[in-house]
Every structure is written in structure tokens, then in C-alpha cells.
Amino acid sequence: MAEVDLPSGPQDGVEYPLTLHYCGNCSMPLEYCEFYPQYEKCKEWLEQNLPDEFDKMLKLNDGKDDGDDEKKRQKRGGKGMMRAKKKEEVEKKICLSRAPRGKRKSVTVITGLSTFGIDLKVASKFFANKFSCGSSVTGNGDEIVVQGDVKDDLFDILPDKWEEIDEDLIDDLGDQKR
To answer: What is the mean pLDDT of residues 2-13?
Structure first.
């Protein structure tokens, strides 16, 4: 392997101390904004906040477009490529139901708490302590199973514990099979 001699000390034509500007949109150095999925928003921010850097970047980009097909931007993303997240608006509603467990025992099933941004593990622990029974988050995603028939008590407890839950948003589905 060949050794490369790198210059040491201050170099001619470089102003010290070096200043590095970061984008206010993607929080990356300005050189990396073009690899961000929302590059247009980065350009808008740069034009408003750092117009001199924006002009420099435009001059550099104009010089790059020589028509070289080899130096086109990579199309497929890797681990480092950030994707823009699409937020889906879901209906905020809590559903309470009772399911049989054995012959005479039953469990209460609570769904829809995560639409309010409530951590299901914390809520499950709260229900277990409140009702002195077992409570768990099941593998079905947004579902908490509380041992016993505590459905009627939940209509009062949920709005008291979490202010964002309104009593009108709680539905009683009755008895259901799991």
C-alpha cells in the first residue's frame, strides 16, 4: 500500500478557525442536505437563513451538471437513507368488551388506548394496581386484557386518569369472543 503525504499545519487559502453551518431543516451539514428526502425544504431554509451559502451551493451545482451519467445521484437507499414518515390520521376511540374465560370467569378487553398516545405497558400496570388483578398487553398490538369484569369501572377511571380521553369516545361492545 502506497503512503500518502498529507500536509500538516495551516494551509494557504483556508481561513481559520473553520466554520461549519448546519441545516435547520434536517440538522445535517449543508453538504449532506441533497441526500435528505426533503431536499426542497432544506433549500428553502437555506435560501431564507443563509443566502450567501445558498448562492455558493447553486454555483457548485451548476458546475456539476456536465451531463455525466456516471455521477448521477444514487436512486436506491441504504441504511443511512432517511424516509419521510407519513402520518395516518386514525379515529380516536376506545372500545371495551368482556370475553369469557373458562366457565364462569371473564376478562375485560380494552382497545384503542394507543390512538391517544398512551403507553400500553404503563396503562396495563396502572390497571393491575388499581383493580388488584392481572393485566397484560397482548400481541394483537393495541389491546390490553384485564382479568375480571371491570368494564363498568373503566368508564369512570379512564377520563379521570387521562384528560385527553372524553367519556363520549368510550364504546361498550358488550360480550364478545376472543
So the answer is: 83
Residue 120, by phi and psi: left (phi above 0), alpha (psi -120 to 50) or beta? alpha
What would the pLDDT profile of 50-68 be if each residue is shown by its tens digit? 888 888 877 776 655 455 5
How far is it, in rounded angstroms, from Cα 115 to Cα 103? 33
- In this structure, what is the dihedral angle of CA atoms 134, 136, 140, 142, given to the nearest 10 degrees? 120
Sequence-ordered list of residues with C-beta below 8 angstroms from that of 24, at least 6 positions apart, any chain: 45, 49
The helix or strand, by DSSP H or E, that contains position 139, with its residue range, turns out to be: none
Q: Rounded CA gap, 124 and 130, in Å?
A: 10
Amino acid occupying residue 62 = D
pLDDT digits (tens, 9 = 90+) for 85-102: 666 677 788 899 999 988
Of the candidates 36, 50, 158, 156, the residue with the CA atom closest to the CA atom of residue 94: 158
Measured in whole angstroms, the distance separating CA 31 from the mean position of its chain's CA atoms is 25
The reported pLDDT for the residue numbered 31 is 83
